[in-house]
């Protein structure tokens, strides 16, 4: 999978902030800017998921909960620093074939995320549900619509074309490897059987890292997030930094929900985290049994893809398949 980017020169951050303030867009947290929703019928986050439980309730006693817990047991035992390095080396070659964004989205029709306690629908529905929810509140931020559409494309790693990786190597909450496994991780108890847990080089708070080294310098557990991020970086993408941060860390719930691992962040991470907090509302709470009519919304997303392909605005993306 590869991403090729063309993008015009961006305004300086100061100019962008001034422009948004002048246009009465919302400013908070010392100058961080978020566009105000422009729709009166915006996205309403539900209180319960499609199974009648609270979102991300990993203790609800359901058949789904049992399989989710077994998933995390396997993930926590097998995601070691050495495993992550091996997977990154194997997949960074990018010696793949080419297909369109929409074709890649359609591949996800056959993928269901075993780690998700809130949804058991094919992943193309999750992509469109999150993108459509953002579109309701922020119709002019098409870069964010596009980020939502592609943020989970790395889940194609589950498919034969990409090596049929096990679910624990593709989905689920992510976390740093090479340092101590924080108790803020879901089902933390299963890390006791991870070989790195007994390795003095890896089981200290900072492990192999320096405090405030920046998340770009931290190895994350291998999966669809890090794969899609790696693809973008290896191809010199100029997607907005916030979009890349969202792609790599949207499953890093120990950070953006539990507030853990902040000692590894630098100032740039702290700014980008604010965009991830915005994105997470739509990524998490849009999951529903009310399915998006794929054929109805396809023209909009296809026009967005065609627009960026023909004008060079924001991004030009190709998705590469492993042969």
UniProtKB/TrEMBL annotation:
<feature type="binding site">
    <location>
        <position position="151"/>
    </location>
    <ligand>
        <name>Fe cation</name>
    </ligand>
</feature>
<feature type="binding site">
    <location>
        <position position="155"/>
    </location>
    <ligand>
        <name>substrate</name>
    </ligand>
</feature>
<feature type="binding site">
    <location>
        <begin position="113"/>
        <end position="115"/>
    </location>
    <ligand>
        <name>substrate</name>
    </ligand>
</feature>
<feature type="binding site">
    <location>
        <begin position="250"/>
        <end position="251"/>
    </location>
    <ligand>
        <name>substrate</name>
    </ligand>
</feature>
<dbReference type="Pfam" id="PF05153">
    <property type="entry name" value="MIOX"/>
</dbReference>
<keyword id="KW-0963">Cytoplasm</keyword>
<keyword id="KW-0560">Oxidoreductase</keyword>
<dbReference type="GO" id="GO:0005737">
    <property type="term" value="C:cytoplasm"/>
</dbReference>
<feature type="binding site">
    <location>
        <position position="56"/>
    </location>
    <ligand>
        <name>substrate</name>
    </ligand>
</feature>
<feature type="binding site">
    <location>
        <position position="152"/>
    </location>
    <ligand>
        <name>Fe cation</name>
    </ligand>
</feature>
<feature type="binding site">
    <location>
        <position position="126"/>
    </location>
    <ligand>
        <name>Fe cation</name>
    </ligand>
</feature>
<dbReference type="GO" id="GO:0019853">
    <property type="term" value="P:L-ascorbic acid biosynthetic process"/>
</dbReference>
<protein>
    <recommendedName>
        <fullName>Inositol oxygenase</fullName>
        <ecNumber>1.13.99.1</ecNumber>
    </recommendedName>
</protein>
<comment type="pathway">
    <text>Polyol metabolism; myo-inositol degradation into D-glucuronate; D-glucuronate from myo-inositol: step 1/1.</text>
</comment>
<feature type="binding site">
    <location>
        <position position="250"/>
    </location>
    <ligand>
        <name>Fe cation</name>
    </ligand>
</feature>
<dbReference type="GO" id="GO:0005506">
    <property type="term" value="F:iron ion binding"/>
</dbReference>
<feature type="binding site">
    <location>
        <position position="283"/>
    </location>
    <ligand>
        <name>Fe cation</name>
    </ligand>
</feature>
<keyword id="KW-0408">Iron</keyword>
<dbReference type="GO" id="GO:0050113">
    <property type="term" value="F:inositol oxygenase activity"/>
</dbReference>
<dbReference type="InterPro" id="IPR007828">
    <property type="entry name" value="Inositol_oxygenase"/>
</dbReference>
<keyword id="KW-0479">Metal-binding</keyword>
<comment type="similarity">
    <text>Belongs to the myo-inositol oxygenase family.</text>
</comment>
<dbReference type="GO" id="GO:0019310">
    <property type="term" value="P:inositol catabolic process"/>
</dbReference>
<feature type="binding site">
    <location>
        <position position="224"/>
    </location>
    <ligand>
        <name>Fe cation</name>
    </ligand>
</feature>
<keyword id="KW-0060">Ascorbate biosynthesis</keyword>
<feature type="binding site">
    <location>
        <begin position="172"/>
        <end position="173"/>
    </location>
    <ligand>
        <name>substrate</name>
    </ligand>
</feature>
